Amino acid sequence: MRLERSAVPMATACSFGGNDMIRAVETIVGALALVIAGVAASAAQTFTPPKGCTLSLTVQMRQCQVANVYSCAGDVPGDRWISYADGVGVYFSSRIDHETRWMESIDHDSGEIDRLLPKANDHASFSTLIATGRDDYDFLTENTGGFVERFVGVDRLTGESVMIGGILLERSTFELSSYDAAGAFLTRRTGTQFISRDLRLFFGDTEVFENAAGDRVESFQPPVTFSLPGDEGFGSAKPVFDCNAVLTQAPSLTDHLRSLRHDQI
Fold first, then answer.
1. Residue of 25 and 59 predicted with greater confidence
2. Which of 23, 157, 239, 250 has the most CB atoms at less than 10 Å from its CB?
3. DSSP code of 260?
């Protein structure tokens, strides 16, 4: 299951009350260090997590993507941040919890922050997926502009296991649709992913993205290498695979790859 930016205009936004505004300000202040860290990493060859945070994993992927996973002492135990960079630089950071729920995300291009709303028809659960082979979910997020988005989908394990970069992964399929607060269709995404039980993480593979405007884009972003502390490539801020090919593709593909929001790597 992957986070993503809606590809249709958000013409209507819910208004903020006093408590909502306070919450938004607190979120922005708390995320400011992460935004600054992202900007710094964009200009560097090595990724440095924010102060008080510890880097644990670097993943190089196809289509010119690299992800760095780190945890921070001030967060809830089990929460992790994933920072994403392409050939241009860091563009997105996502905080997930132990169940890989989308707790918070930061778009470094726009400065927009999204947060998971506490109430849900069915929160995503990594534990349910690995125990039963299937996890259905139906939850809401809200951004700093007050726009509420509903996500409905399902992850399924296929029973297939593969070894990539020395890490044992299991293949899964997913279907994910998003809607605005009024129920209007926004986006639909389908495809395959990988999971690691030991790392409790999703990793990308193949995907078809469609939106209400009629756009359709296919992408292929499986992991290629995994670097743990002490390994070559650990902490790299620069992607290494397919970058020349992606940067010369049509803008629609490049923009789409930058628009994907992840609970997966």
1. 59
2. 239
3. B
Q: Produce one character per residue of 206-245: b if its CB has 16 or more CB atoms within 10 Å, e if not.
A: ebebbbbeeeebebebbbbbbbeeeeeebbbbbbebbbee
- Amino acid sitting at position 212: A
Q: Give the integer Cα–Cα distance in Å for 239 and 71.
A: 21
List Cβ neighbours of 56 (8 Å cut-off, separation of 6 or more): 69, 70, 71, 80, 228, 229
Task: Pick the closest to residue 83 from 58, 63, 62 (CA basis).
Answer: 58
| Residue 51: CA count within 13 A, CB half-sphere | 4
Residue 199 three-state SS: coil
Token reading at 106: 């930061």
**Closest alpha carbon to 172 in 156, 152, 190, 196:** 156
Look at residue 247 and tell me whether its pLDDT is greater than 90: no
- How do 201-211 and 53-61 pair as beta strands? unpaired
CA 42 to chain centre: 18
Instruction: Give the max Cα distance, the chain.
Output: 51
DSSP classification of residue 133: S
Length in residues, the chain: 265
Q: What are phi and psi of 57, to 5 degrees?
A: -160, 140
Per-residue pLDDT of 51-86, as tens digits, reads 999 999 999 999 999 999 999 999 999 999 999 999
Integer Cα distance of 72 and 237 in angstroms: 19
* β-strand pairing of 148-164 with 167-180: antiparallel
In whole angstroms, give the CA distance from residue 102 to residue 115: 7
Indicate whether this model's pTM tops 0.85.
Answer: no
Paired residues of 156 in beta bridges:
134, 173
Contact 52, 79 (CB under 8 A): no
